[in-house]
Amino acid sequence: MRALLLLAAIAAPIALAEPTAREVQDIHLRDFHTKGVVKKETVAQDGVQRICTLANDHPSAEVTKQLEADQMKTITFPSGSLMGDWKRGEDIAQSGRGMTFSDAPGTPNGGSCYNCHQMAATEISYGTLGPSLHGFGSKRGSGEDTQKYVYGKIYNAKAYNACSQMPRLGFSGTLTDQQIKDLVAYLLDPASPVNR
Ligand code: HEC
């Protein structure tokens, strides 16, 4: 009994001490190591991530607007059609491969979209951190403006929502332009399972 009380006395203050964002970042930088294709630098935050962390994801409206404008400048929209092949897009959306220490350099990366979004009605498992994208094209259309928005959102989600939790898949070099176009088609093409 005495041992238990002692344990409770020791455990209580430890449980209360929440690390600050800066301490968490220091722990990441101390404990993550470069291994294979995974580079330690990827855990270091850049300016926009840092500001979002320090502002608890709610910087002032003025700062948010400026951050989004800066992120928008990182996007290069390819000329010509942004609609690729929805079948290839489906494979990319449902793949979480690539960028792990056991992947050979040059392995094509997946988009890991399924980790956060429902997309097709037939999926039995998907994450819910992001909104469901099922029926996205049916609801939003597949015109040029929507194609451009979806391309840009996948390329750099922070250009539209500074503190978005969605990864910046083009900006980070995770996905190629062609892969992003294939994903645009997967979300917008009326024949895609997303819109059936
Ligand atoms: C780590 C989670 C995560 C991953 C992975 C992710 N997203 Fe997202 N996505 C989100 C969140 C959260 C939102 C809503 C907030 C926002 O708009 O930034 C979102 C929003 C979106 C939107 C805008 C929806 C709207 O109604 O305008 C699109 C389109 C989208 N994601 C597509 C994708 C695609 C395609 C992929 C894969 C390449 C992907 N997302 C991967 C979390 C994620």
Plain-language structure description:
This protein has 196 residues and is mostly helical. Helices cover 42% and strands 0% of the residues. It has helices spanning 2-16, 21-31, 47-54, 61-72, 86-93, 136-140, 144-155, 177-188. The longest helix has 15 residues, at 2-16. The radius of gyration is 20 Å and the shape is globular.
SSE blueprint and pairings:
Layout: H1 2-16, H2 21-31, H3 47-54, H4 61-72, H5 86-93, H6 136-140, H7 144-155, H8 177-188
Helix pairs in contact: 5-8, 7-8
Bound molecules: heme C.
Q: Under the CATH scheme, which architecture would be assigned?
A: Orthogonal Bundle
Shape, per Cα inertia axes: globular
Oligomer description? single chain
Helix segment count?
8
CATH homologous superfamily placement:
Cytochrome c-like domain
Share of helix, binned:
40-55%
Structure class: mainly alpha
- Please summarize the sheet with the most strands: none
Q: How much is the radius of gyration in Å?
A: 20 Å
Gap from first CA to last CA: 62 Å
Strand share of the residues? Answer: under 5%
- Tell me the series of helices and strands, N- to C-terminal: HHHHHHHH
Q: What is the count of distinct domains?
A: 1
CATH topology: Cytochrome Bc1 Complex, Chain D, domain 2
Using brief descriptors, characterize the structure shown.
single chain; 196 residues; mainly alpha; Cytochrome Bc1 Complex, Chain D, domain 2; 8 helices; 42% helix; binds heme C
What is the structure about, briefly put?
By secondary structure, the chain is mostly helical.
